[in-house]
C-alpha cells in the first residue's frame, strides 16, 4: 500500500503540528521562522553561519525587525518552539523546508546561485519522503523547476531509493518573500503571499502551509509565474525609481523644484503612483533582482531594455550627487580635494542597518577618489569596510556636523533631528529632501 503523503502533510499542517525548517536565517528567514513558531509550529532554523545559529539559540536577535524579546519565549519554551542548527541532518525530523538563502550577483552581474545549489543539494541529501520544499529566495523564472527539482529527484536515485515523484512522494513550490525591512504597517503575516506549486498537489500543500500563518494567499499557476511575479514587482520599483531620478536631473537642468512637481502630480487621484528621487538604489533586492530577469532573457536572445536603462540611471546617481557636493563647496570657495565631507546615513534606506549595495558607499568611494576627507555617521551602522578600508562612525554627531565643510544626507533615518542638523551644518547637500526649506 502506498503512503498518502499529501493527506498526512495536510493533516499535520492544519493541526499546526508539522515541523518547519527555515534554511537561511537572515533578513527573510528569521522573521519567517519566528512567525511560524509564534503560530505554534515547531521550527528549526538551519544556517551555515555558526554565530547566527548560536545567537538564535541564545534568544539574541541580529535582525532589527525581530526584537530579542520576540525570540526569547520561543527558544526558551519547553520544548523549544524555535531552535537553530548548522547541520542539515535535522531535516530528517522536519515536514517542510523553506529556503531563504542569498541570491546575489557575481562579478559580471550574472545570477550567483551557488548558495541555492548548496542548499538544494544539502536538502536533497537529508529530506524525508513526503516533505514540502518551498523556495522563497528571489530568482529567475524557471529556477524551481529547472534547478531545484532535478536536484531533489536525483538525490533519491543516487541513494538507490525508488524514484521520488514530485506531487506524490515530495512537494515543491515557489513563494516569493515580499518583506520590506524597517516597515511596520505591513508584516509577513499581513502581506498577501503568492504561491506557485509544481503540481496541483504541491499547490494544495503549499497554500495550506502559508494559510496557517499569512492572512491572504494568492495562488498562481506555476512556480515560474510566482518567480516572475516577484521580479515584476522589483523591476517595477527599479524602473520607476530610475524614472523619477531622471526627472529630478531634468528639473535641475530646467531650474524647477522636482519635489514641488512630484507633490503636485501626486494629487491626481488615479493613474499616477508617487516615487521619490534619491542617491540611487541599494539593498539586496532592487539593484540585483531585475538582473536575474535580464540574464534569463539573454539566454533567450532577448535584451531587457528597461532593466538595463534603469540600472544605468540609478547607478549614475551617486556621481550626480558628488558633483552637487563639489558645486556646493565651490560656491563657498572650497575645493572638494581636502575638504571634510560628512556622509549622513550609510544604510541603503531609512531605519535599517543594511549597507549592502548602498549608494552611500558609492558616494563615499567617489568622494575619496576626488581627495575629500570623508567621515560618516549612521545611528544603525557603527562600522563597515569598503574596498578593504575600515570605516568607523563619528562618535559625536554634533561635533562631526560642526567640523564638516559639507554634509551630504544620504539616508533619511527617523532618528535624525533635521532641524538641528540644518542649524549645525555649514553646508548641506540633501539627497532625500528632508531639510526644511
Ligand atoms: N532582504 C530583503 O529585504 C529581501 C526581501 C525579499 C526577498 N529577499 C530575498 O530573500 C533571499 C534572502 O535574502 P536575505 O536578505 O534574507 O539574505 P541574508 O544574507 O540576510 O540571509 C541569508 C542567510 O542564509 C545563510 N546561508 C547562506 N548559504 C546557506 C546555506 N547553503 N545553507 C543555509 N544557510 C545559508 C547565510 O548565512 C545568511 O544567514 C534573497 O534571495 C533575497 O533576494 C530579500
Written description of the protein model:
With 437 residues, the chain is α/β, with parallel strands linked by helices. 41% of the residues lie in helices and 14% in strands. It has 14 helices and 14 strands. The strands form three sheets. An eight-stranded mixed beta sheet has the order 3-2-1-4-5-6-7-8, sandwiched between helices. The protein has a four-stranded parallel beta sheet with strand order 10-9-13-14, sandwiched between helices. Strand 4 (96-99), helix 5 (114-126) and strand 5 (132-135) form a beta-alpha-beta unit. Helix 8 (223-254) packs across helix 10 (289-298). The termini are far apart. The mean pLDDT is 96. It binds nicotinamide-adenine-dinucleotide. Nicotinamide-adenine-dinucleotide binds at residues 23-29, 46-49, 52, 100-103, 115, 118-119, 137-138, 177, 179, 181, 284-285.
Descriptive key words:
14 helices, 437 residues, 4-stranded parallel sheet, alpha/beta
Amino acid at each position: 500500500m502506498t503512503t498518502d503523503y499529501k493527506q498526512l502533510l495536510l493533516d499535520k499542517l492544519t493541526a499546526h503540528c508539522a515541523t518547519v525548517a527555515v534554511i537561511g536565517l537572515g533578513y527573510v528567514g528569521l522573521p519567517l521562522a519566528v512567525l511560524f513558531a509564534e503560530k505554534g509550529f515547531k521550527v528549526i532554523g538551519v544556517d551555515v553561519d555558526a554565530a547566527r545559529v548560536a545567537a538564535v539559540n541564545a534568544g539574541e536577535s541580529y535582525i532589527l525587525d525581530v526584537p530579542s524579546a520576540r525570540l526569547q519565549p520561543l527558544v526558551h519554551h519547553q520544548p523549544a518552539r524555535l531552535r537553530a542548527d548548522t547541520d542539515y541532518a535535522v531535516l530528517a525530523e522536519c515536514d517542510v523546508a523553506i529556503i531563504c538563502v542569498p541570491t546575489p550577483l557575481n562579478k559580471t552581474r550574472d545570477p550567483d546561485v551557488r548558495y541555492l545549489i548548496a542548499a538544494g543539494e544539502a536538502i536533497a541529501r537529508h529530506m524525508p519522503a513526503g516533505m514540502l520544499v518551498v523556495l522563497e529566495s528571489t530568482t529567475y523564472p524557471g529556477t524551481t523547476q529547472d534547478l531545484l527539482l532535478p536536484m531533489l529527484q536525483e538525490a533519491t536515485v543516487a541513494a538507490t531509493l525508488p524514484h521520488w515523484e514530485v506531487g506524490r512522494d515530495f512537494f515543491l513550490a515557489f513563494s516569493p518573500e515580499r518583506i520590506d525591512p524597517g516597515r511596520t504597517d505591513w508584516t509577513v503575516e499581513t502581506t498577501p503571499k503568492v504561491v506557485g506549486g509544481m503540481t496541483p498537489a504541491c499547490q494544495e500543500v503549499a497554500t495550506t502551509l502559508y494559510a496557517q500563518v499569512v492572512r491572504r494567499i494568492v495562488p498562481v499557476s506555476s512556480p515560474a509565474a510566482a518567480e516572475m511575479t516577484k521580479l515584476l514587482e522589483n523591476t517595477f520599483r527599479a524602473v520607476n525609481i530610475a524614472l523619477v531620478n531622471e526627472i529630478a536631473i531634468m528639473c535641475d537642468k530646467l531650474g524647477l523644484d522636482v519635489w514641488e512637481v512630484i507633490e503636485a502630480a501626486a494629487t491626481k487621484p488615479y493613474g499616477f503612483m508617487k516615487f521619490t528621487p534619491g542617491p540611487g538604489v541599494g539593498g539586496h533586492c532592487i539593484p540585483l533582482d531585475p538582473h536575474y530577469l535580464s540574464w534569463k532573457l539573454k539566454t533567450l536572445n532577448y535584451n531587457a531594455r528597461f532593466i538595463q536603462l534603469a540600472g544605468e540611471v540609478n547607478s549614475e546617481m551617486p556621481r550626480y550627487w558628488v558633483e552637487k557636493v563639489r558645486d556646493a563647496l565651490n560656491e563657498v570657495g572650497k575645493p572638494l580635494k581636502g575638504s571634510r565631507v560628512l556622509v549622513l546615513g550609510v544604510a541603503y534606506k531609512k531605519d535599517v542597518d543594511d549597507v549592502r549595495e548602498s549608494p552611500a558607499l558609492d558616494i563615499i568611494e567617489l568622494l575619496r577618489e576626488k581627495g575629500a576627507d570623508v567621515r560618516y555617521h549612521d545611528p544603525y551602522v557603527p562600522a563597515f569596510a569598503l574596498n578593504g578600508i575600515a570605516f568607523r562612525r563619528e562618535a559625536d554627531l554634533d561635533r562631526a556636523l560642526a567640523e564638516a565643510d559639507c554634509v551630504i544626507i544620504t539616508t533619511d533615518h527617523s532618528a535624525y533631528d533635521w532641524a538641528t542638523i540644518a542649524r549645525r551644518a555649514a553646508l548641506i547637500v540633501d539627497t532625500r529632501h528632508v531639510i526644511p526649506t
